[in-house]
Amino acid sequence: MHKEHELTIPIDLCLPNGRLNPTAVGWSRHPLHRCNLNGRWPRKKRWNYWAVTTESHLFSATISHLYYAGLVFVYYADFATGQFNEVTRLLPLGLGCQLTDVVAADANYGGRGLCVAMRQTKGGVDLAVESEISRLFFLGSRVLPASILVGASGRATAAGIGVALQDGKTAVSSA
Questions:
Q1: What is the CA radius of gyration of the chain?
Q2: Domain enclosing residue 52, as ranges
Q3: 23 has a pLDDT exceeding 80
Q4: Residue 3 lies in a domain
Q5: How far is CA 106 from the centre of its chain?
Q6: Whole-structure pTM value
Q7: CA separation for the pair 125, 96 (Å, rounded)
Q8: pLDDT by residue (tens digit) across 3-19?
Q9: Which long-range contacts (CB under 8 A, 24 or more apart) does 90-94 make?
Q10: How many domains does the chain have?
Q11: Helix or strand or coil: residue 50?
Q12: Spatial contact of 144 and 74, defined as CB atoms under 8 Å apart
C-alpha cells in the first residue's frame, strides 16, 4: 500500500513552470496548499462552495472560476413548504469572480442582480448574499438577502489533499 506523507506547512501546489510541485503531493489536517495554478489555461478550475443545512432548510452559495467561464449560484430550499429558489449567473471568462490561491481567504462576486461575499472573520466565515429572484415577468421580482455566519468551533477540522494523477495532471481538494 502506498502511503502519502502529511503536509505541515503551507506549500505551493505548482512549480513556476506550471507543473506539479512533487513535494505538494500529500495530505494535511488543515488546508495548506497554495493553488498557484499556472499554465494549462482551459483546464484550471477554482471554486468556493458552502452549504448550510438544517432539518427544515438548505442554503448554498458557490463562486466558481473556470477561466473560460465563471459560474455563481445561490440555492435556498424550505423543506416544509417545498419552496425552492435559485439564482445562477454564467459569466464569460469568469468576469467578476474574485477567488484567491488559498482556501482561507475572501471570495466575492457582484453584478447583474446577484452579490455573493464569503468573508473570513475571527468567528468563522460570513456568507452574505443579496440576489434578485425573478419570477414570471408579470409578477415582478423580489430580493433574497441572506447573511449566515458559519462558525469555527475548537473541534472543527478541515483537510487538504494534493494528488498526482497518472497522466501527470494534478488535483487538489480542501474540505
A1: 18
A2: 11-174
A3: yes
A4: no
A5: 10
A6: 0.77
A7: 20
A8: 778 999 999 988 888 88
A9: 93/67, 93/68, 93/69, 94/65, 94/66, 94/67, 94/68, 94/69, 94/70
A10: 1
A11: strand
A12: yes
